[in-house]
Write a structure and sequence with these properties.
Layout lengths: L2 H12 L2 E2 H8 L3 H14 L2 E6 L2 E6 L5 H6 L2 H17 L24
Antiparallel strand pairs: 1-3, 2-3
Helix pairs in contact: 2-3
């Protein structure tokens, strides 16, 4: 059985799973798992849904309610907290909190002749 057939079998057994879970189950890289899932999507056997930063893959004829049972409110809130904390850590503190931080302009000097 080829790898795509094994991926379909995994989806039949376990329902919707993440691309990362598929990669770990077969000992392949994330990119290779995405490539095979892309081929299965073009054929029309599976489709992928992005929830937060995770990409879930499910069979076309599968039960969609299973995905909602797997994703909990806690997962969604954790994704939101992680996204917000990553965004706030990129901001630089300024001396004056009411002013937006911006880098100083470079000072250009004229060369003397």
């Amino acid at each position: 059985m080829n790898l795509e057939g094994e991926i379909l079998e995994l989806l039949r057994r376990e329902g919707p799973v993440t691309v990362y879970r598929i990669a770990k189950a077969f000992g392949i890289t994330y990119g290779r798992a995405q490539w095979h899932i892309g081929r299965l999507q073009r054929i029309g056997q599976v489709y992928a849904v992005r929830i937060g930063s995770k990409r879930y893959v499910m069979l076309r004829d599968g039960n969609h309610g299973v995905l909602l049972q797997k994703v909990t409110v806690r997962d969604v809130l954790n994704e939101m907290i992680n996204a917000l904390s990553a965004r706030s850590s990129r901001r630089r503190p300024s001396e004056k909190p009411w002013r937006c931080w911006r880098p100083k302009r470079p000072t250009w000097r004229r060369r003397s002749a």
